[in-house]
Write a structure and sequence with these properties.
548 residues, mainly beta, Immunoglobulin-like, 3 domains, 14-stranded parallel β-sheet, 14-stranded mixed β-sheet, 7 helices, 51 strands, 12% helix, 42% strand
Length: 548
């Protein structure tokens, strides 16, 4: 448990009450709120006031707090029967953890910045209207989440549900959502769920509102989907072999809808298979409502129809094109006009001297031969292009105190930075980071051997690569921490290049490392660190991602 000291301004006792209130209001609006770096257990009034700097309500066992930071490696435990009211931003930093057995009521913004939030079986998270939960890490729900605000599940975010999520407002996801049995997602009449990535369900989805599966979205269900609202598919939806879709509302398919089990389109149900779309039925569709087909219905399955199936109207229009051939004789009159152009041929001989000019254009045809310019990527033999994807490069901590091990290389303090990179291509090994820029005479404290400046190297041992197989494989994330010793308190500019060897794969598998492997440049990353953002004294701050 961390104890945090704060400084409070004391106003002149003779100042009038109105002036005091005005000054407090200005102070709150123009200066940063006090930040409490927390880790420990919220269990009672003492832990509320000491640990979180909060205000305790004994009648409801509720702690109201603002400006909270869960630091990397720290855990905030909220006990059963206790309520934490987030009245100002709470940031759960990289590798931080929140375990909730009580109630979290968010009336501000909860940033899960590559951390972990576990809402346990007895836990409840209430995201109040106008509030936001912004997730870059992992949220696992075994309790209840009530959303009346906005939940943003970013590209690196994962939302795992094994109990109940009640959505009354907006959930947008560019990351992953896993609704695992016996999980239930209730999307009410006012709810909107917008999916741009993976949405996999083996539990239950009850939709009375709107679900939009965007063009990059992949929605698959091996459980039960009951739709009383609208489902719009612009990507891919698959009803797995164990799944059931009960439709009482509207399903608009604008891309691919695959049925490997059963779809029950009930009396009030409408399925619109729009132009250019495919409804692939590999099992059974029971239709008691309406299927409007403007696209393609394919597959080896059966449609049991007691409702209405409409097919494209164009066949009734096809006789109209048969009238247009009767119009084609009108063009046959235009050939009679072609003799008029025969006068122009008499002009063409006059223009024939100009024909050599066209012969110049063939001479320009070699210019199209410049289309082989695409080989230019191969003109950079030592670099793997588009191999790595930076997820973030941020300042995760700072201090004004010298480093205990290397004080002479950090007299003005230390800045800690973390780089998170995803490998999107071939497997790599022998990864290292080379300092290419480090301003103000600063040092990389955790360089190989000893602190170094530009040209120093930080090697990642193969046994420390993600996955535990001595390789950095495709889609794996690599986290690298850097510790910069400060020689001055000025803004510092830090740049590193990433080098690695590309693993050769043969029919027999992965080659063993050999002397024939060459080191290649696979990425370059920069960050600015402002040490003056660090408060005076023996303090440490942890900052959320700026792009929030």
């Amino acid at each position: 448990m961390h104890k945090v000291s704060t400084k409070r301004s004391i106003f002149n006792a003779g100042t009038r009450l109105v002036a005091v209130i005005l000054l407090i209001a200005i102070s709150v609006s123009l200066t940063p709120s006090i930040t409490f770096a927390v880790g420990g257990t919220l269990a009672d009034e003492a832990s509320c006031t000491t640990l979180l700097g909060g205000t305790w309500d004994a009648g409801t066992s509720a702690c109201t707090a603002t400006g909270l930071q869960i630091n990397g490696g720290e855990t905030l435990q909220i006990n059963a029967g206790i309520t934490l009211i987030i009245a100002g931003d709470l940031t759960n930093n990289f590798t931080g953890t929140i375990n909730n057995d009580g109630t979290i009521s968010n009336i501000s913004t909860l940033f899960n910045f590559f951390g972990v939030i576990n809402n346990n079986a007895s836990g409840t998270i209430n995201n109040i209207a106008g509030s936001t939960i912004n997730n870059d890490g992992t949220i696992s729900n075994a309790g209840i989440i009530n959303n009346d605000g906005t939940i943003v599940n970013n590209i690196t975010g994962t939302l795992n549900n094994t109990n109940t999520i009640n959505n009354n407002n907006t959930i947008t996801s560019a990351g992953s959502i896993f609704n695992s049995f016996p999980g239930i997602i209730n999307n009410t009449a006012t709810g909107v769920i917008s999916n741009d990535s993976t949405f996999a369900s083996s539990g239950t989805i009850n939709n009375a509102g709107t679900i939009i599966n965007n063009s990059t979205g992949v929605l698959s269900s091996g459980g039960t989907v009951t739709n009383d609202g609208t489902i719009t598919n612009n990507g891919t939806i698959t009803n797995e072999s164990t799944g059931t879709i009960n439709n009482n509302g509207t399903i608009d398919n604008n891309n691919t809808l695959t049925n490997n089990s059963s779809i029950n389109n009930n009396f009030t149900g409408i399925i619109n298979n729009n132009a250019g779309s495919t409804l692939a039925n590999n099992n059974v569709i029971n239709n008691g409502g309406v299927i409007n087909n403007g696209g393609t219905i394919s597959g080896t399955g059966t449609i049991n129809n007691s409702g209405t199936i409409t097919t494209p109207v164009p066949p009734t229009d096809t006789p109209v094109p048969t009238d247009t051939p009767t119009n084609t004789p009108v063009p046959t009159d235009t050939p009679t006009n072609t003799p008029v152009p025969t006068d122009t041929p008499t002009n063409t001989p006059v223009n024939t001297p100009m024909t050599p000019a066209p012969t110049n254009t063939p001479t320009k045809t070699p210019a199209p031969t410049k289309t082989p310019a695409p080989p230019t990527p191969t003109a950079t033999p030592g670099k793997v292009t588009d191999q790595l994807r930076q997820l973030f490069f941020i300042i995760t901590g700072a201090t004004r105190l010298p480093d205990k091990k290397y004080p002479k290389f950090s007299p003005k303090g230390v800045v800690a930075a973390t780089l998170l990179v995803k490998n999107t291509g071939r497997a790599l090994r022998n990864v290292s980071f080379r300092v290419t820029k480090l301003t103000n005479n600063n040092y990389l404290l955790n360089a190989d051997g000893q602190p170094g400046k530009v040209g120093s190297k930080l090697t990642v041992p193969n046994n420390a690569l993600p996955g535990g197989n001595q390789l950095w494989d495709k889609n794996e994330l690599l986290t690298q921490n850097f510790r910069i010793g400060l020689m001055t308190r000025n803004l510092s500019f830090f740049q590193v290049d990433v080098y690695a060897t590309v693993v050769k794969v043969t029919a027999a598998g992965v080659d063993q490392a050999s002397s024939t492997e060459t080191e290649e440049l696979i990425g370059s990353y920069t960050i600015n660190a402002d040490p003056d953002a660090v408060p005076a004294g023996n303090s440490t701050i942890y900052l959320p991602m700026v792009t929030k």
